[in-house]
Specification:
Layout: H1 2-20, E1 28-36, E2 42-51, E3 56-60, H2 67-75, E4 82-87, E5 90-91, E6 102-105, H3 117-127, H4 132-145, H5 161-173, E7 179-183, H6 191-208, E8 211-216, H7 219-225, E9 228-233, E10 236-241, H8 243-248, H9 253-259, E11 262-267, E12 270-275, E13 280-282, E14 292-303, E15 306-313, E16 321-326, E17 339-343, E18 349-351
Parallel strand pairs: 3-8, 3-9, 6-7, 7-8
Antiparallel strand pairs: 1-2, 1-4, 4-5, 9-10, 11-12, 12-18, 13-17, 14-15, 14-17, 15-16
Helix pairs in contact: 1-4, 3-4, 3-5, 4-5
């Protein structure tokens, strides 16, 4: 009997999600969006962004770059200073948090400690006056969806971090949002569980057919999850693209340094980024016209199947150059203090722009 009830509830949930979510109408657009806390404190500086329907988008950047303020404006938890937020063709800039088609999953999960899992998930429906039997039926369907129905009567203190996250996800989905907003949802988990839960997030996003906007400061997390990565810096968007594009073809020195795994090199062609795993090392001057430089070996760090080599270039720019080589390509004759030749393919060097500088426009009176 319990299985049949769950199956019926799941069908009810699916029908709710289909009716509430038009798969052709979940595109999120930010148009010249800004958040100013004062004339000198500008969190978000006139950004433009379009997130296609049913896309997984990660906002990525260091602390204070504006990613969380952007998320909170989309959620309706921060007042927009200027610009527009458009969801599915509807301008929701001034709509209330409960009337814009979004739901937010907080970093702390923010579960009510005095409510069990079932009532935590059903709470929003209770606030809207939905009868107890219906809200519990819909909440149980969501708990089943996230494999937590067996914990329906447990309180938050009786759940692990990963279990609490699933309850928080179910609670966010109960109002059938078009866009799910996630604020550092994996930061409180241990490394093993973090990897497991990010796989589940990606699965849920595809299964539910929702647009996800996920804020993180972890490059690894963003690359594992995102269809689109948005790298932010000082309230501006430095680069938008697929994980492969952003990592392999950084548009600015900031993006290259933030993503890691790149060397910033000053060459005759200007400032370029070259990935550490795209540089070869030789004791002899390489033949041909491929770009190269002389450098003194600083250290070799063994990292299992790879080794990380650090070099001091013989140029005016003394920033160390890192090279990641398979262990089989590291010669036992190489030693610190000796000079070697570093070489890379022209196609593997990417010119770097200066990046976007904050506009810091004054607040209108």
């Amino acid at each position: 009997m319990q299985f049949n009830q769950t199956a019926v509830a799941s069908k009810l949930l699916s029908s709710h999600m289909v009716s509430a979510t038009n798969p052709k109408n979940n595109t999120l657009e930010l148009v010249a969006l800004s958040k100013h806390y004062s004339a000198t404190s500008i969190a978000v500086d006139s950004i433009d962004l379009k997130v296609p329907t049913n896309h997984y988008c990660c906002l990525l950047g260091p602390s204070g770059c504006g990613k969380t303020s952007t998320l909170r404006m989309v959620a309706g938890h921060e007042v927009v200073t200027s610009g527009d937020i458009i969801l599915g063709g509807r301008n929701i800039t001034d709509a209330g948090a409960t009337d814009r088609g979004t739901a937010m999953m907080f970093q702390s999960y923010a579960l009510f400690p005095h409510l069990n899992s079932l009532d935590n998930v059903a709470f929003s429906l209770k606030m809207r006056g939905v009868a107890k039997a219906e809200r519990h039926q819909r909440a149980m369907a969501l708990l089943e969806r996230v494999a937590m129905s067996q914990y329906a009567q447990r309180f938050p203190a009786e759940l692990s971090g990963g279990q609490q996250q699933r309850i928080a996800l179910a609670r966010a989905l109960i109002m059938q949002p078009r866009v799910l907003l996630l604020d550092e949802p994996l930061s409180a988990l241990d490394p093993f569980l973090r990897i497991q839960m990010r796989a589940e997030l990606r699965h849920w996003q595809k299964e539910l057919g929702l647009t996800f906007i996920h804020v993180t400061h972890s490059q690894e997390e963003a690359m594992a999850l995102a269809d689109t990565m948005v790298v932010m810096n000082h309230g501006r968007i430095e680069q938008t693209g697929s994980p492969q594009q952003v990592f392999s073809q950084p548009s600015s020195e900031f993006v290259a340094r933030f993503m890691g795994g790149h060397n910033i090199l000053h060459t005759s062609a200007g400032l370029v980024a070259v990935r550490s795993d795209k540089i070869s090392v030789s004791s002899d001057l390489p033949a041909g016209s491929q770009p190269h430089l002389r450098a003194s070996l600083i250290d070799i760090e063994y990292q299992g199947s790879f080794s990380l080599l650090s070099f001091a270039p013989e140029t005016d720019h003394k920033e160390p150059v890192s090279v990641m080589l398979p262990e089989a390509q590291v010669s036992s004759s190489w030693s610190a203090g000796h000079t070697y030749h570093l070489q890379w393919a022209e196609a593997d060097s990417h010119p770097l722009g200066t990046g976007l500088q904050p506009r810091r426009s004054p607040i209108a009176a």
